[in-house]
């Protein structure tokens, strides 16, 4: 009798990238409705972001999450968000094409070489940058790893053809969908939604069709939230495994505080622990939040 191995939805090992010089990235602002331009001295912005980053990293460690910290790269203001790579069980690593040139520069041979010792099966989509096609990792596609479904939000940072190719190569079902908020698509799927082992969250208000919610409900209980809550980054969350093998949810303090009492009760029925880092500087100038900062190592 043949047995199919089911992939875990979450992991206890996370890589984070300490920024060298964080501030608002002008090359990503045209596609990111949640990002604000530098309105203070950039050195001050960086120092605040660095303190927030380190406090978040230490908070994860306190909850038993294994953390590997790497150092970012000069000239890459978004390197705190390692969206150019993903890892998968079975020793697979995927490299991705990024839209902005200074995000393409984040993809570094030294980090790839270290990870290649563990992840020997490498899929490299990065050459598609030459044809102006982007697919920004688990930002572009929110993965249901257990059921092998990839929810892809269509945007300039997420090309349909590449997402379909990725799904075929990795044996995933491809579910693309469209969003609109503030007159443009939401730039990343992981801003719209998160998927845990038993529970998922999605901003149904920004969806142009409700297909995604129906698909999610086939496999999990679902919390639906509003555009205003999404703007507080409650959708940019990630399930991790901490002390004693406990599944925990990482959601920024702003994201969690945007939830209603009813939504918080639903969360508490599935997660005893909600890890709530306070990262307002990173969210304001980076236009991303907790999930964007966490590279899962399976």
Provide structural commentary.
By secondary structure, this protein is an alpha/beta fold. The chain has a single domain (about 15-295), classed as L-arginine/glycine Amidinotransferase, Chain A (5-stranded Propeller), CATH 3.75.10. It is about 30% helix and about 20% strand. The protein is built from eleven helices and 15 strands. The protein has a three-stranded mixed β-sheet with strand order 2-1-15, with helices on one face. Helix 1 (about 40-60) packs across helix 11 (about 280-285). The longest helix is centred in the first third of the chain and has 21 residues, at about 40-60. The two termini are about 25 Å apart. About 50% of the residues are buried. The mean pLDDT is about 95.
Task: Give the helix/strand layout.
Elements: E1 13-18, H1 42-62, E2 66-71, E3 85-88, E4 92-95, H2 101-104, H3 109-116, E5 121-124, H4 137-140, E6 141-144, E7 149-153, H5 160-170, E8 173-177, H6 189-192, E9 193-195, E10 199-203, H7 211-217, E11 221-225, H8 227-231, E12 238-241, E13 247-250, H9 253-257, H10 261-270, E14 274-275, H11 280-286, E15 295-296
Parallel strand pairs: 1-2, 4-5, 7-8, 10-11, 13-14
Antiparallel strand pairs: 1-15, 3-4, 6-7, 9-10, 12-13
Helix pairs in contact: 1-11
